[in-house]
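Moderator note: this is an archived Q&A kept for reference. The question asked for a predicted structure of one protein chain; the sequence and the answer are reproduced below.
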Amino acid sequence: MPNQFKKFLAASLLTTFSSLVSAETIRVAIGTQDTTINCATGGLIVRELNLLEKYLPRTGKYKDVKYDIQWKNFTSGAPLTNEMVAGKLDFGAMAEFPASFNGVAHQNAGKGSLLIAPISGSILGAGNGIVVPAVSSAQSLADLKGKTLSVPFASTAHGVLVRAIDDLGWDAEKDVTIISQAPELAGAALRANRIAGHANFVPFPDLFSNRGFARKILDGSETKSPTYHGSLVNADYAKKYPEIVVALLRASLEADRLVQENPEKYSLLIEKVTGIEAEVNYLFHGPLGLQTRDATWKPEFREATVTAIKTLEKLRKEKLELNVDQFIDDSYIKQAFKAEKLDYAAALKNYDQVPLTAADAITGKSIKDFRLVAQIWVRGEDKVRTYATATAAFDALKTLEAEGKDIRAVYAQAYDTGIKLLANQAWFVRDKGLLKAFLLKQHAEHYAKQHGGQILDFIAARS
């Protein structure tokens, strides 16, 4: 009996040891762009709330698996792509332009990557933009002919700049000088008036304008080219661990739901992590935001990828053999929707902005017409105040300031496009007693020419 017990004990120890030795450790290495705030629900919020751990598979072939979750932050897509191609990352998040470069770079290295889901975007192309120093007299890109413009090379903003130059009939190599400049360097250059203009991606055109040293003269919506940021994965990794890919997307869907339920709270979280002011985060993530969080493969997003490849070909002066139908793989996001009991087909057809459900802060009446809506975020308050009209909001603003309230931001909705604006950067037309907001002065002038009305800047409009 003692010998039998010894044999049993030895066998048990051997089994336990073998199990420990054979337990697989799976790396989940994710590259994020924290300061590219419309990537937040695909990265920053998932990481900060530990949402991925909630969805990682634990059964079947993953029963005894240990996960090595790694997060690495980048300021743009190009260096993130370099690390994906080098095998240091499994996932990444970037806009359609650098994502196309990511696909080409993997292909050239004899590898593959897949675009698995959009995170946030704009069918109108809103979000990217061109700014000038606040002291500049320029009101449009047409005023910058012969000048030096900067842009982060190989970014979506680079593509927007090239398309905007094409729209003017200019030669990008002769009519302007384009230099490569990262956002942090461009900010200093704009402050010092060392560059005539700077093109950048989300959120920097609005962030620089909010900080007072720059002014937006072109929004990506004017190029009428849809734009988005999306999630990518190494193709071999996805084939080997499809359940992990779905887990990350499920975590992203939960992050999206949380932000929609409480955009102020998570705008403050993004500010805490990135230093980007919460009011700018709310501009994108709040109801009727500048961009719409959308995880479905809209035809326009697919077309944006095709456009990005064509623009990349123009910049590189070579033909790129990247098959978009193979590069974009919607199977994983469809599985994530199904697992979360969400209707992908219905979401695919939904083009609405993140909805605003609010009552007027003065009358208490439910707001139905969103073209005239304005909002005020008082510092220290958990919720943004909503008003049916900019006129009512500006009246309330006087009272709040008289009471000594610190105003974080005032928002208005562009009357022509519906995109969310920082009201102190907007132009207004007083039309039959109503204030209608517009992104740019020329937009307000165009409306006034057609419909009449007085054109006002923010200071004049609020007085």
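Archived answer notes: The first strand starts at residue 25 and ends at 32.
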